[in-house]
Amino acid sequence: MLLYQCLPQAIAALANEDTKSLGLLGFSDAEANLLALVRRDALQAMLKFRHDKKRLLLKYKENSKREVLHIQFMATTPEVQHKGLAAKLFHHLEATADAHNKDLVIMNTQPRTASLFAEHGFRPWQEYRVGGEEVEGGPVIQILARPPKGGKGQAGANGHPAAHEN
User: Fold this and answer.
1) CATH T-level topology, domain 52-159
2) Predicted model pTM
3) Average pLDDT rounded to a whole number, residues 12-21
4) Any alpha helices (H) in 65-108, and if so which ranges?
């Protein structure tokens, strides 16, 4: 089970210092113990981001006047890295988005990968600070977007809709 799918239950379990309930949610003992160390406010910020992410994607879609293909998460395990698997998957996603005149949107948390996405036509659309500006040191997520190649959709400057505040 993905963490964000059970955040409300995990927050409730952590509020009651109930690591056993975390096990019932599908977390291993090690994961439950690790989650118990995480501050509840950090989990609440993640839950807020989950809600805000949906709102941001809808706002992007409204402004671009096109459908969006959102890449939720993409990574390869260390033992299969540098074998071209991620590149093949990424090219397939690009081709699918282009064929259906959809923008590709990814929420990037790794500044070192921004140049990789730029090589594929992604441009920054907006930044989002998890937990809001009041959370010092909260992670910043860069929302990157790539309009379809050869598409006939409407877009603003650089092929992207105008950014809006969180």
Assistant:
1) Aminopeptidase (3.40.630)
2) 0.63
3) 60
4) 85-99
